[in-house]
């Protein structure tokens, strides 16, 4: 069975890219089809794999301001051909689901396209001239129409949580199967002793709500370390007081150390599934998270973490001030994360794909 993979952008390392890495572990000879690729921003982690990169990657703004090219992305993703393959597996947060093929197409959908359906202020918070934002908003209805049609193209949809499953049904009227995201529990094991700081790791984008965490810890005065990069980096740095440290993009080993040492992992976004929640728990560290979305499926309240009810600095301050790390057991937390181990993820994905392929043939 010759498998093609599809992914939108390899220009960062996040949860979707972790899933793609797992697909390559199942099918190492597969070729991934990409709208955009930047090997430096992905730390060369995908250099060894076969890639087909779209014509849009050569555009002048592709590596620096790719959001300005949204109008061309449907055309870029539809340009790929799959005649030589038996099956196509797309790893989609936005455009990848929209490939055109008569081959069996299975989509692992991380979310319905955020800026079209759930993030109404997406364009407002981008640091672009008003004229660009105004033009972008004019084309949202057109992109939304394309996006709905694109979501009808996969033969089957897999998603990461019941939370996203409900959104897929709401916006696309498609049924889906839940296979939770993978965690490398071998790479993320407890190490060292706890230290006197809190930790978060995230793309530094508006929808991740890292600004609310920064505001809370500015007032708390407690030590906070932040891993990750994104368009909000400089803004957040300018807001943060001296008790807050920005670490940039970290390797898995560096992440493991900070997950393990932290008193708790703090997260304020309404997350789709939350691989970082699970990585922290795999290292035996409790999570303090916004009690909505994927967090409710990844965290056992009072056993592996605690929830706050609102995405406000006041809610985070109250939860952190009352947080007692001594009531959490490292082994119990890790055991909870083991059910999400990447080997289990890969087994379920492989089984699903092979069953659907056998049924079609």
Helix/strand layout:
Blueprint: E1 3-10, H1 15-26, E2 31-37, E3 50-53, H2 73-78, E4 87-92, E5 104-109, H3 114-117, H4 130-151, E6 156-159, H5 162-172, E7 177-178, E8 198-201, H6 210-220, E9 224-227, H7 233-239, E10 244-248, H8 252-261, E11 265-267, H9 275-282, E12 287-290, H10 295-298, E13 305-308, H11 313-321, H12 330-338, H13 342-360
Parallel strand pairs: 1-2, 1-4, 2-3, 4-5, 5-6, 6-7, 8-9, 9-10, 11-12, 12-13
Helix pairs in contact: 1-13, 6-11, 9-12
Total number of beta strands: 13
CA gyration radius, whole angstroms: 20 Å
Helix and strand content put the structural class at alpha/beta
Numbering strands along the chain, what is their spatial order in the largest sheet?
3-2-1-4-5-6-7
- Count of individual domains: 2
Tell me the fraction of residues in β-strands, as a range: 15-25%
Overall shape: globular
How far the N terminus sits from the C terminus, by CA atoms, comes to 11 Å
Please bin the fraction of helical residues: 25-40%
GO molecular function: glycosyltransferase activity
InterPro entries: Glyco_trans_1, Glyco_trans_4-like_N, Glycosyltransferase_grp1
Domain Glycosyl transferase family: 191-323
Domain Glycosyltransferase subfamily 4-like N-terminal: 13-186
